[in-house]
Amino acid sequence: TMIWTAALLMMVVSYADSGEDPYAWGDMFSSCHPLLEEHHSPINIDHRMTRNDSLGSLHLDGFDVVQTGHWTVENDGHSVVLQVSSGMSVSGGGLPDVYHTVQVHFHWGGPATNGSEHTVDKRRYPMEMHIVNLRSIYPNLTTALNDPLGLAVLGFFIDVVYADNVYFGHISQKLSSVAYKGQTTKIKPFPLISLLPQHNMSQYYRYYGSLTTPPCSQAVVWTLYEVPIYISWSQLAQFTSQIFSTEEDAEQVTPLQNNFRHIHPTFSRVISASKDAKLLTGTASHPLRLSATVLLLQIVLLRGFISSL
């Protein structure tokens, strides 16, 4: 597991010298150029998807127990990464194999902007959490990146409410210890399932895509859960305002913000909804359409009023 973890860190976040602008990654990583019909991530999820009744809940083995040893939280200059010990795996739900869980990381925006990587009906959530899992037939990430099914990433949108999420506090309470790039701290393992929307785990979307960081390898089976994780405003602010992409002794301290990649076209890919997914009912698209209708009605009424003067 330590080899997988080290490889994951080296490969997924080896773009330190390529600049923070995701649009410029292709200058140093040719595989990050989204050419025609290539399957890049993230994407926008909308109602144009196919229901797949064979997609039931995934089996999250070991997620409900406290793992032995310790975990590590790190600020790698691009995200906050939770490195977990061995003992957890993901299978079922249409996945072709068993995948070993290796790490969890986060994407966010700024104090006044949302920062999820995927969007739902063009709505961007405040944050997104990724649980990265490595296909069990591979000894390390490097070999897995050559397989379109090499990684299984579970994506969870994070939304905001007023009350603290007690379980999310296991991570957010450690953030002050990893405020600056390169800082790490140990964390006592906790049941990872406690972070997740446990009563809605059968509601998700499935598609095939890529890493959202260089080398942007098209090697990911994506599972995006429909129901978000809820955290408090103060817990969100710890990410958007109190994490820095620079070292503590840097001449100019730079906040780590907007660490998400831009949306890519789906092209000919099939986006599948699980058997229990709600297919985007009640999403942000409906009030937006209503607002446009109301605005149009107001314009018509105003014109009528003006013409009657």
Automatic annotation (TrEMBL):
EC class of the enzyme, as a word: lyase
Listed GO CC annotations: plasma membrane
InterPro entries, per the entry: CA_dom (IPR001148), CA_dom_sf (IPR036398), Carbonic_anhydrase_a-class (IPR023561), Carbonic_anhydrase_a-class_CS (IPR018338)
Cofactor(s) required, per the database record: Zn(2+)
GO molecular function list: carbonate dehydratase activity; zinc ion binding
Record keywords, A-Z: Glycoprotein, Lyase, Metal-binding, Signal, Zinc
Domain Alpha-carbonic anhydrase: start-end pairs: 11-275
SMART domains attached to this UniProt entry: Carb_anhydrase
Superkingdom, natural source: Eukaryota
Residues in the signal sequence: 1-18
Annotated EC: 4.2.1.1
Catalytic reactions on record: hydrogencarbonate + H(+) = CO2 + H2O
Protein function: Reversible hydration of carbon dioxide.
Family: Belongs to the alpha-carbonic anhydrase family.
Protein name: Carbonic anhydrase
Gene transcribed to yield this protein: car15
